[in-house]
Design a protein that fits this description.
single chain, Alpha-Beta Plaits, seven-stranded antiparallel beta sheet, five-stranded mixed beta sheet, 5 helices, about 20% helix
Length: about 240
């Protein structure tokens, strides 16, 4: 079956991909979730949060993500004040928000409907609502859209050049990377469940089901003619 794949880059000082949050503690996963990318695409199309049917249809996209640089976990400590409905001060409480620092990921979304992928690309290039990397304060990189491929999402990630500029500066030739993908795209791999199958983004009651996800390791080789722009090169990032 012919598939068209769109490749996206997620990189920056901070990003956050939580699939679970509990009151004052806002976690992040260690790589982007499918539900987060669906949220970006839905924002690009201008879907409202309660447009459950249109948003749920995006679950049909093939999804895979490659970890080019894992980054480090960062905890951001906050205090916040709570007020009663009448305006009186109630209490001060602590919140902990977690981020990934200096991580780099390449995401692939694909489908047999080539026109749908083209519409998704156009929506991400000219979004109705501004997308971001997990939280509103975390903008997308300038090279967010890397291009398209006629290969499957997994094969596209196998072949796409390494995006870790820090590793490239070390002048090493190969790096072991991990790819996570929809389990039906890696049928020979052991799968696990991840709670990021979107049912609703409604603010009244967000709903997510489980999807099966598998992982694999690949050996990525550096391209001698890589032209990747390093936005932090001038400051020794």
């Amino acid at each position: 079956m012919i598939v068209k794949t769109l490749l996206l880059k997620l990189a920056g000082p901070l990003q956050s991909w939580g699939t679970r949050s509990h009151f004052e503690t806002r976690h992040t996963d260690f790589y982007p979730s499918k539900s987060a990318i669906i949220g970006m695409i839905a924002a690009g199309f201008g879907y409202h949060r309660n447009d459950d049917e249109s948003i749920a249809a995006l679950n049909q996209l093939d999804f895979a993500v490659r970890v080019d640089r894992q980054g480090t976990l960062l905890r951001d400590y906050h205090t916040a004040q709570k007020y009663k409905n009448n305006g009186e001060f109630d209490r001060t409480y602590v919140t902990n928000r977690y981020y990934l620092e200096d991580a780099v990921f390449v995401v692939a979304v694909g489908h047999a409907d080539e026109k749908w992928i083209d519409r998704i690309e156009e929506a991400l290039r000219n979004p109705y609502y501004q997308p971001f990397m997990g939280r509103r304060s975390l903008p997308l990189p300038a090279d967010f859209i890397l291009g398209k491929s006629t290969k499957s999402v997994v094969d596209a990630l196998r072949e796409f050049p390494l995006q870790d500029s820090v590793f490239r500066k070390r002048q090493k030739k190969e790096k072991t990377l991990v790819i996570y993908a929809d389990a039906d795209l890696m049928q020979d791999k052991v799968s696990t469940l991840r709670k990021d199958h979107v049912q609703s983004f409604s603010q009244k009651e967000r709903k997510f089901g489980y999807r099966s996800e598998a992982r694999m390791q690949i050996l990525a080789k550096q391209s001698e003619s890589s032209t990747e722009h390093d936005a932090f090169g001038a400051i020794g990032g």
